[in-house]
Design goal:
InterPro entries: Cu_amine_oxidase-like_N, Mao_N_sf. It is built from 2 helices and 51 strands. By secondary structure, the protein is an all-beta fold. 31% of the residues are buried.
Length: 546
């Protein structure tokens, strides 16, 4: 049999399945867990947090031991208190002490305390601490916070967080719950304010209120940007469901918060979130000279983090500042990832324009490359930004993102620089390449990865990364890399690197993965006098070659 308690029968095991907030240190006899701390008031029959005592091992609780639970001064046990789902015998209560007598049996046992308290008006606000004694000895590890005494207790909750698209957020209905946890927390002589941050409540639709528990009536009145709440004189505590429609502020990204404030009541919850889920990126800003023709500038990437983020419609990359003497003479647009349908790409009136004919069902990436620009000698000196805009010059225009495209200087950049820089992130198929100060973005069908502390790259990507010519002989399973007077070869499955006829052993080998040939970058970089830099935080590799 299970161990018997002299005043109760062990039953209602379902109570032991309630989730717990914290676990207290174990003693040789038992472990104690307390569920989430609750709010209570200075009045009778206040319901505290569930407490579970579990025997550490067989026979850990001795026959002669008592388990005593002591409340602080001014707090007494209420008759509604239950142990293992049975009401306590008030004969086992002596003032502030509730005693549980233990009887030894073979199996590990559990006691579940569902406490109710009578709290005098004189008891100070703050944590209500239950102290545990085994026999006549206080257990120092078992001072349990089972409630917090407050003047008032009312909280907001929400079952779901609404998600909005940054580009076209629209409006959504939200449902929140307002509940009193202490009798009389909301009173008829006071007004309580509800305010939504970073969104507006649809005043025309108003607020629909439904009482779920209790007898109080709650009413709502729109007052500018606020909602005024009032209750009637009915005593007790109640819970209500509130439904209303919200619209996020234009060009806002982040959480939408609902605040409640009034006499002794203050709470906040998150109602929704506006997700941008699209990012525009350029390479390092290129320096161009005023008065020179057809200068190369950095490429542009527009990346969706979630499918369908870029909605159907017209998008513009506007140049800021605007200048009539600035002209883009060439550019190409490609979709390198996903399946977004793009059409009608052109440059007109100082802006790149393209149309999304249908939204993606797989997150997509749009790349604009081979951009050439001319700015006359009277142009603005400094940064020129590209601003990605949806529905440009319309009433519902949204600026999605911006990046510096190039920087104008007073003279043409030096032609004498020959430095080549490649930069990529492990796991990403995109590369930012800078040649003689000119940037471009290239994207491949597979991404570099780390194997045995070596960066492995596809043959095609390695050619770009090293500014070299790379070829693959499928019959011989041989990779050839050439740059200048240097020629290096390696064979799939072999650790031998052949450099102009001389062999060098590597600590890794070329491999085939996902139907692509991958080669170790570090050994080839050394062969072709390229310097590698590794950023462990961002997992970024930078290749510099003169």
């Amino acid at each position: 049999m299970k161990k018997l308690l002299s005043l109760i029968t062990v039953m209602a095991v379902i109570l032991t399945l309630i989730p717990f907030q914290s676990t207290f240190a174990a003693t040789p006899a038992s472990k104690v867990r307390v569920s989430d701390k609750v709010w209570v008031g200075n009045m009778e029959a206040q319901h505290g947090a569930l407490v579970t005592f579990t025997e550490d091992s067989n026979n850990a609780w001795e026959d002669t031991q008592n388990l005593t639970l002591r409340l602080p001064d001014g707090v007494s046990w209420n008759k509604f208190t239950r142990i293992n789902a049975r009401l306590i015998n008030m004969a086992d209560v002596d003032g502030r002490d509730l005693t549980i007598k233990l009887v030894n049996t073979k199996n590990i046992d559990r006691i579940v305390l569902d406490p109710y308290f009578d709290i005098e008006r004189s008891v100070e606000k703050g944590d209500l601490v239950l102290r545990v004694y085994r026999g006549d000895v206080a257990d120092s590890d078992k001072e349990l916070v089972v409630a917090e005494i407050k003047d008032y207790g009312a909280k907001l909750t929400s079952s779901d967080i609404a998600e909005f698209n940054f580009i076209k957020p629209g409006s959504k209905e939200v449902v929140v719950y307002l509940e009193e946890f202490i009798d009389g927390s909301l009173v008829d002589t006071q007004t309580y304010d509800l305010e939504v941050e970073n969104a507006e409540i649809d005043k025309a639709k108003g607020i629909e209120i439904k009482r779920l528990t209790g007898d109080k009536k709650l009413t709502a009145t729109m007052n500018g940007d606020y909602v005024k709440l009032n209750v009637d004189k009915t005593p007790g505590k109640s819970k209500w469901e509130l439904k209303f429609t919200i619209t996020p502020e234009k060009e806002y990204e982040g959480d939408i918060v609902l605040n409640l404030e009034g006499r002794g009541v203050e709470d906040s919850i998150t109602l929704g979130t506006v997700l941008k889920n699209v990012d525009m990126m350029t390479g390092t800003a290129t320096s161009i000279g005023l008065g020179f023709q057809d200068q190369d500038v950095a490429g542009i990437e527009i990346t969706e983090m979630e499918r369908g983020t870029l909605l159907k419609g017209v998008y513009t990359i506007a140049i800021n500042p605007e200048y009539k003497g600035l002209v883009f003479t060439d550019a190409k647009l490609n979709v390198t990832e996903g399946n977004i349908d793009i059409d009608n790409f052109e440059y007109r009136d100082g802006k790149f324009v393209f149309e999304v004919k249908s939204a993606s069902t797989r997150a997509s990436k749009i790349v604009i490359n081979d951009i050439k620009v001319t700015v006359d000698q009277f142009g603005y000196l400094g940064d020129y930004k590209g601003e990605l805009i949806f529905n440009h010059d319309k009433s519902d225009q949204i600026k999605i993102d911006e990046e510096v495209l190039f920087t104008a200087t007073g003279s043409k950049p030096s032609e004498g620089q020959a430095k080549y820089v490649g930069q990529f992130i492990i796991g990403s198929p995109s590369f930012i390449i800078t040649t003689n100060g000119i940037n471009r973005v290239e994207t491949f069908d597979v991404a570099p990865y780390i194997q045995d502390n070596r960066t492995m790259m596809s043959v095609k990507a390695a050619g770009v990364a090293l500014d070299a010519k790379v070829s693959y002989d499928a019959d011989k399973k041989m990779v050839t890399v050439e740059s200048g007077d240097t020629k290096a070869t390696m064979t799939i499955g072999s650790k031998i690197l052949n450099i102009n006829g001389e062999e060098k052993e590597m600590d890794t080998e070329a491999v085939i993965s996902n139907s692509r040939t991958f080669i170790p970058l570090a050994f080839l970089a050394d062969v072709f006098d390229a310097e590698l830099k590794w950023d462990n935080v961002t997992k970024t590799v930078t290749i510099m070659k003169n």
